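Form 7-S
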Amino acid sequence: MHDIKAILEDPEGANAALQRRHPDLDFSSLIELAERRRALTTQYSGLRHEQKTVSEGFASKTMSDEDRATLRGQLKELSTRVKGLDGELKALEEQLEHAALCLPNLPSAETPDGASEEDNKVVRTWGEKPTFDFEPSDHASLGEDLGILDFEAAARVSGARFALYRGLGARLERALASFMLDLHTEAHDYEELLPPYLVSRDAMVGTGQLPKFEEDAFRTEPDDLFLISTAEVPVTNIHRGQILEAGELPISYAAYSSCFRREAGSYGKDTRGLTRLHQFQKVELVHFAKPEESAALHERLTGHAEAVLQALELPYRVVELCAGDLGFAAQRCYDLEVWLPGQSIWREISSCSNFGPFQARRAGIRYRPAPGEKPRFVHTLNGSGLAIGRTVMAILEVHQLEDGGVRIPQALQPYMRVESIAAS
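Output:
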């Protein structure tokens, strides 16, 4: 959420920053509502003061019955007006909050300008694209031929955009989750969490999924609970409404979870294989940091996700998103894109974002810089470390063998207990 006070102090600067994301966006409606609230609050305070003054008049012992009746009439009229203004203020507050919740975060000064993914910048690449003496297959064909992916059975059970893993395919998913969690907790000093998969509406609002993207979420009736789209949601909300101590920061969590998405805006897109499913698994990395430390932590977070790809011998590139391609809550973001030779494309496998105080303001997460000092909002950051289904895709395509089998990367072999998935 936005700092409305800061927007009112510099509306031109705020609008210029917002329009770096989209030229048609501005804060005009929000500013109008905020100014109406300020005027109404002043009027309300004046009436409350007048109401108090009139009430104090009843203390006079020399007042006549006629004067007392007059005061009583004045007080009744004031009470009616105060009650009416109170209702107007509450309705205005709701409108203002909704307007603020629906506007995206402002890009950081470091975020490059641009309108779409075509304007994103490749920051660096790692590894060499593999070459083959045969025509490489895509992961869906490989998985089905090896008997480790069964999309037909998944469709019978649940419909389109679901996957069923079999045998060594199921073990591969499990092995990747364990490998990633071990790497992040032992080498990168994260605390491992296993969060709930159902969260409250407040939790979804806190991280920015609601109210704008409710159509993309799975909601349960009549509890008004939501299946999480990412472990970012429950993990960030662990500290909702809390004031942390400066000495606790940064706090770093690694969480494995299933993720659930309707993919409402992607009808007909990426329907084959594991690319875009309604349910998939992911290891998420979440940080809470002091504002002055968040930029450096963002770089380290991205490096932690890169370490997984390097250990699995998967060529990738780091792409910095331009202002026009940022996710709703992000102020700066790096995407890690892995090379998929079976499809001859780069595919996003992790987004590492710095949200600044945007989520913390929505969720009420603050820290106290020093004893006795006024609390400030923390900065939140997160990134996939990694999306497991897409990592399976990359392993199958990058490490495929001419006989139709797949080599298991050395770092993963202790978890898989095999060196390859052999073709039958």
